[in-house]
Amino acid sequence: MGLSTVVALAGGMPAAAATKQAPDFDATPPQAGKPFYAERQLASNGEGFPNYRIPALAVTNRGDILAAYDGRPTAIDAPGPNSILQRRSTDDGATWGEQTVVHGGKREAPIEGYSDPSYLVDRSTGDIFNFHVKSFDQGFGGSRPGVDPEDRNVLQAEVSVSHDDGRTWQHRVITPDVTDDLGWRSRFAASGQGIQLKYGKYAGRLLQQYTIINGDGVFQAVSVYSDDHGKTWKAGAAVGAGMDENKTVELSDGHVMLNSRDSGRSGYRKVAISDDGGVTYGKVTVDRELPDPANNASIVRAFPNAPKGSDRAKVLLFSNAGSTGQRANGTVRMSFDDGETWPVARVFQPDGMAYSTLATLPDGNVGLLYEPDGGNGGIRFARFNLAWLQGVAAPLTAGNLTVERGGTAAFELTVTNQSGSALHVKDLTLGVPAGWSYELTPPDRILPVSSRAVTVRLTVPEDATGGIYPVTATLTDTKGRTSRGSFTAEVPKTADENTPGRIRVTGGTLTNPRDDGYRAGDRLVFTYTVTNLSDAATTVVPSGNLEDLDPAADARNCRWRGLAAHASYTCAFPYHVVSQEDLDAGHFTPVTAWTSTSDDTVTVVGHTGERVELS
Length: 615
Description:
The chain is mostly beta strands and 615 residues long. The chain has 3 helices and 44 strands. The longest helix has 6 residues, at 580-585.
């Protein structure tokens, strides 16, 4: 029962043999060992460079693991004078060699920098490519249209290639090759790892993902590809709007799935499918099973050598910061159906976690290179096996529903056992907003490769705020393994809740009252809670008669960029220093205004806090 049965089903010769590719490295099925997870720090801020960021991970044909990342002497992204650095492990990640340089930046004028690495290994030739940006005077946002490799106002696309397993590198600017439209004003390779296709007529194609800014200022995704082992590179069609760092994975039927960060901050990943090897993509949709705080992520196949169409070929792994609003809650997920559902998830870093990238290793473990402390903790490498995920191949699905406030809605939650063994259920629960309630009766047993519908009654309280809320279903089997599913419940909004970008501000409460009266120079400290009532991310900027409040005047302030839909935050440090004028008046009242900006909609909410009697 569980994922071990699913991933043990397929056999046969690796599909790579048909295209004369060397085999990749498959993960070990979970039934083959005990749960394992270990990690070690590869680069720490302040040791060598003040700042390290942006992980990339690859395994060479010989089985060496390569980890690349930025060394940032000024702690900023491009156009800082950054260097692409690398460490190597020859024993499956247990130990690592000294830090070396793929391409070093120049700190003296005229400055050059190299940032945001992404590996791509050609299994046919053994060549290793490291894509990154080359910057002079402009970064991604400030780059201007143009393809002259010497133009210092253009953010350049560079690829370094190694013919000796990543020990030495040759560098080449490919900005003209990958700029399909001269109106594009910026581009950069999405960091992490590219892929090589294995199935059908596009087998052998190399794919590296890019983000571009088109002539209208829109962020789009682009697949850059080569059909001649990296001698030439071409750009496919630009995809979507509000895209950002994106990755691709080849599905079991040979289609390519694009998985993208959302620069529009929906709080989730965006996906699209290509049927021509990544040159063009279909409709872009939001995957609400993959929460994401506008961050880089990774998606790979657990069994890259599996034959086309097999059950193993459908098993995918995904890592990211599993949160809609914060770079935290680092999570690895597993899908058994080409990413249609993601029933298995395990948190590897509950605190701050930013970028991450995955690779299957020669010893059957999975490598995970990530940024702890929300991107401020250097570069860390982890190893784990599939048994560590402790998951059940049983997705939980339900249609999105609408519930009136104060009402109850009945719906069906479908549990699908994708494994070849009976699923014995211990518990089935829902994660719902505070104050909501539900009733359901878990099934005892679900037969192999079959489904059961569970009737759920969901009740919403009278004082609920209108909006769309995520609901998470969690199943636990009798061995303690879990599966999950997500859907949404909409509470219809009232007329005054229907303004996009609308927020609610509460508080303005004095947190340090005195019992013996106040004197000039005393600090009055106030706390506020801001809630985004809308279904879109918003930026909140306050102003008022307090210090440490307004970003226009204070370094420490209560601004929040990209507050996710229905998310809240609390700011507990704004203060006022009591003056003689306040004492003469006998009181002080905190008066603030909070501006919410969502797309082109601006909402201002005024707030008057409790009057503080000073006598």
